[in-house]
Specification:
The protein is mainly α and 251 residues long. It is built from twelve helices and no strands. 28% of the residues are buried.
Length: 251
């Protein structure tokens, strides 16, 4: 294949990834960033700070945690730790996507760069679309989507920061709440293992309970505790039932 053909293919798949900006996950996320603009404005975060957060931290929940802690006057070390702990949840997503994109010729720096764009929306999009993309063009396809989505939402924050002042509070809140609703639906829809759905159910139940009992550590307890409980149930009960069920079906 000639170099010009390679260039055209690369451009084609990059543009194909860019077109993902019109997908439902991307549109919901973009709408939610309008809500984030309102939250940043009401919390006293400047336009420049909100823009920097969007392009550097990227994941919306991590930004919400940071803005909330900054507004409450938390120490910078506590803010750093909270955002870091929030972002650790991205590691399994990166670990699941990288093998789908990597080839023998893929430079490590490319994978490290693309990992910055991995969050719930990009992960769901990749899980749904990468299987239809030739393996050697998957990094280009994902780069087209991730870069376009990040820059678009950065532009949305820059433009909407001052506009959201005119929105009624209930409208801003509704726009922002679209993201967690979508996250819940997409995680359930893309769960491939029973233990994942079990952890999801336990987390949904434990989250509000822990918010009442231990509001300072509710996410930590519900996340680690719920995930551990789901693993133990799957490991010591559900896996033992499967052979018995399969044996009964066979007979």
């Amino acid at each position: 294949m000639s170099p010009s053909s390679d260039t055209r293919l690369t451009l084609f798949w990059f543009l194909s990834g860019m077109r993902g900006i019109t997908s439902l996950p991307a549109l919901i996320l973009m709408t939610s960033f309008v809500g984030f603009s309102a939250f940043a404005f009401e919390s006293g975060i400047t336009r420049g700070e909100a823009i920097f957060m969007t392009i550097s931290i990227w994941a919306l929940p991590a930004k919400m945690i940071l803005v909330g802690m900054m507004a409450s006057g938390a120490h910078i070390a506590a803010c750093f730790l909270a955002v870091t702990l929030s972002s650790i949840r991205m590691m399994p997503m990166v670990a699941s996507i990288v093998p789908e994109m990597r080839t023998e010729k893929t430079p490590t720096w490319v994978l490290l760069l693309l990992s910055h764009f991995v969050a719930i929306t990009a992960w769901v999009f990749a899980i749904q679309r990468l299987k239809d993309v030739p393996h050697e063009h998957r990094t280009t396809f994902f780069a087209g989507f991730g870069i376009t989505l990040t820059l678009t939402n950065t532009l949305i924050v820059a433009v909407c920061y001052g506009v959201v002042e005119t929105f009624p509070p209930v409208v801003s809140g509704a726009l922002f709440m679209l993201t967690p609703v979508y996250f819940l639906a997409s995680i359930w829809a893309t769960a491939r293992q029973t233990v994942v759905k079990l952890a999801f159910v336990i987390g949904v139940i434990a989250g509000p309970v822990m918010a009442v009992l231990e509001p300072d550590f509710d996410v930590l307890y519900a996340g680690i505790g719920g995930g551990t409980l789901a693993y133990l149930i799957d490991r010591f009960w559900m896996r033992k039932r499967r052979p018995a069920v399969e044996a009964g079906d066979a007979s």
